[in-house]
Amino acid sequence: MGNLKSKHLEYRPQVKLEWNELLKGKTMKVLMLLSALAVAHAQFNNGRILEPPVPAQCVQRIIHERYSDNKGYYFSWRDPAKRGVEEDWLSARNFCRQRCMDLVSLETSDENEWVKARIVQDKIKYIWTSGRLCDFKGCNRPDLLPNEINGWFWTAELQKLAPTTNRQQNDWSEGGGIGKPQPDNRELQQGGAAEHCVAILNNFYNDGVHWHDVACHHRKPFVCEENDALLKYVRYTNPNLRV
């Protein structure tokens, strides 16, 4: 694999985005309604939407491994039905969400290293995570500005990342396609699309296994992790199913 390097990270919890604060202390019925409302309004500029969970698929979701907290993970390249198949960021996220999962959110250094170890072990070039730049209505909040530094978050958990300038609190690569530390929005600088989604690249630029900002339309393998909110939603609305 060449010169693989790994940062020692000590993540600290960052601020949750406001939508998540609305859920605190509410009943499951309100959670259900808010979840449905969020899905209904999660439409992207190209008309595509963020899909809701599908109860039957949640029941049949594939778990390849469980992390130390017993949360289940799905690795697309280990599924015979998806082996060799790569998806853009939204398609990958919808695949996960339909199964009561979501793209992986790397909220601790241990989880980050655990996922990276499996990418290296299985010789996977890159994967999608749930990471994204806040680039929609409401992202002009003072605490999110400038967006390219303070506006990155794990969409699956609505968890804000540390500022990109705090290199001890993230795993952004120090290199990339133009030799600059990530995130660098390289593709936009070169006349292409903005790089608003977060992928893990496996020594792709001889820079180790680290996070990179990547244009969301690119296709990659992906990792899903079970999502507590989606599981609770489906269990509440389908009490007779064993999800």
From TrEMBL:
Q: Does the keyword Disulfide bond apply?
A: yes
Query: What InterPro entries does this protein map onto?
Result: C-type_lectin-like (IPR001304), C-type_lectin-like/link_sf (IPR016186), C-type_lectin_CS (IPR018378), CTDL_fold (IPR016187)
Report the GO molecular function annotations.
carbohydrate binding
Q: Which UniProt keywords apply?
A: Disulfide bond
Keyword Cytoplasm tagged? no
Q: Which domain of life is it from?
A: Eukaryota
Domain C-type lectin, chain residue ranges per copy: 68-225
Gene3D superfamilies reported in the protein's UniProt record: Mannose-Binding Protein A, subunit A
Q: What PROSITE patterns does the annotation carry?
A: C_TYPE_LECTIN_1, C_TYPE_LECTIN_2
Q: Where is this region: Disordered?
A: 165-189
Annotated PANTHER family: LD12305P (PTHR21407:SF3), RE43931P-RELATED (PTHR21407)
Q: What is this protein called?
A: C-type lectin
